[in-house]
Amino acid sequence: MRNAQEEEPQDPQLVRLDNMLLAEGVAGPEKGGGAAAAVSAATSSGGMSPDSSLEHSDYKSKLSQIRSIYHTELEKYEQACTEFTTHVMNLLREQSRTRPVTPREIERMVAIIHRKFSSIQTQLKQSTCEAVMILRSRFLDARQGDDSPHTPNSTGN
C-alpha cells in the first residue's frame, strides 16, 4: 500500500503561478535573477529613447519592490505554516499520552494543514502575478504612448 500524501500531485494552478513568477524574475533560486530577462522581454520591440530609459529604470525599480514584498510575504507564510504544523504535532504528541495516535494520523493531519495553507500561498502568488501584469501593462502602454505621442485617449475623456 502506497502513501497517498506522497502520491498527491502538485496543484496545477500553483505550478502555473510558479512558472509565471519565474519567467518574470520574481521567484527563483536567485532573487531577481530573471529580472533582466523580464525587462528585456518587455522592451524588446526596439531601441529606447531617453524617456524610455527612465521608464525602464522605473519598471526595474517597481519590479524589484514587487519581488521584495513577495519574498518577505513568502517567508512569513512558510514560517507560519511551519510554526502551526509544529504546534499541531506537539498537541498530537501530548494527546498520545492519553490515547493512541498513529503515525498515519499525524501524516494525515499534516497533509490537511498543508492543503489549507496552500490556498494562502496561491492567493499570495496570484496577487503578485497581478501586480507584475499591471506593472508590465502600464510600462508597455507608456512605451506605446512614446511611439505615437499624438494618439487620442481611447477612453473618450
Automatic annotation (TrEMBL):
GO CC terms: nucleus
Keywords for this protein: DNA-binding, Homeobox, Nucleus
Major site of localization recorded for this protein: nucleus
Biased composition (Low complexity): 36-49
Annotated ranges, domain PBC: 1-141
A GO MF term: DNA-binding transcription factor activity
Amino acid composition bias (Acidic residues), ranges on this chain: 1-10
Region (Disordered): 1-60
Subcellular location field: Nucleus
Biological process annotations from GO: cardiac muscle cell differentiation; embryonic retina morphogenesis in camera-type eye; heart morphogenesis; midbrain development; skeletal muscle fiber development
Coiled coil: none
Keyword Nucleus: yes
DNA-binding in keyword set: yes
UniProt name for this protein: Pre-B-cell leukemia homeobox 2
Organism: Neolamprologus brichardi
